[in-house]
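User: Can you predict the 3D structure for this chain?
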Amino acid sequence: MPEELLTLDSALSDEAVLSTYRRMFAALARDSGAVVDDPALVDIAETLFAAFAEAGEEWLTHEQMRHVCRAYPAEQFENRLRVLRGLGAVREVFPKPNQLRYRASFTSVVGLMFIRRMMDDGGQSEMHRLLALEDLNVADPRTTMEEARQSAVNLTRAFRLWALELITLTGGTIEELREQAPKLWGTEEIAQRAQRLHGTILTRWPALDRTCTDLRAAIYAYSDASRRAAGRLADSAGTTRNLTLLPTETWRTFAQTASRADLAGVLDGFVFDAPAPWHDPAAIARAVDESPRPAPAHPTPPRSTLPDPGPSSELAEPPGAERLAAVAESLLGDASRVDLADVAGGDWASVRRLLADLVSIDLRPELPYRLVWTDTLTIDAGREPAWLTHAFLERAS
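Assistant: Here is the predicted structure, written as structure tokens:
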């Protein structure tokens, strides 16, 4: 099966499914990661249960189960099957070694059916079923007062929690209220059923008047909260014309049977932006290429905070041959060769000037002096500079 593109609507639908699973099994979960985080895992379980129902007494082998779930990745299927077997939803037909056939648990199948109903209407149908069963129970002559009291206590707790959730939805965002709109369907009928049940309990067991008082207060709180939530939802629908507040069939019938005036009236008062002008892509690319591009601004290099006296007058012009010859003669004297380590002073600034002059002397072929460097390196941490490369100044022969 080709993978469907993930859209915002599908992501929201998957998240709604998962949120229902989490809320229902929160009381049974060992930790927050115990519930599935992918709706496809539930789809695998439903696919397997449907295959078990069709297989009948022949049951299914591991290969048959994999063939039924071939649309899902093998690793995902194996992981899900391992979980279902560990929890007893899928088990061996007979508890004996080398068992090859498996059967599904009836409890798990019914549980999935219950979950689907909870997702369809937010628990409305389950509340109707619960009230119908409780009505039959309290009317049964075999029911004791303690059983009736426990039924009233359970219903009181359910209605209180339901009313609190509706109050929260009424005071929250309208988007969340629209999402939980199925919880407002048939609220009046549910309240009437609960009041009839309350009357039956109070009539048969007058001693449960305090318990019935709590139940009656919870029913009234639920009715008030549902009316306020429905009123806010109706006001929002009249303002925004939200098309999701009515069943899809209603809008489809309206679109097929309404006149042009009625169809136009749905969007009466809405203002739409004018369509954007269409441009040739080639013209847009040419405009981008021809648009002037500002030259990037080069940052100014940092400058020292110390005063700069400017270049020395001695360096304003390149040194002349006469001055360089005088420097060489002053160092050589009567000797034909001198070691620079012997004639250089201790001031590093003076040594730098002297080395600059000697390099200039060596680079001038018209002067009869040469600078010869050696491989000897002397290091003295107490001097400045601390290292010295030995060189000789000599007269050219």
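The mean pLDDT is 75. Strands lie at 60-61, 90-92, 101-104, 337-339, 369-379, 387-395.
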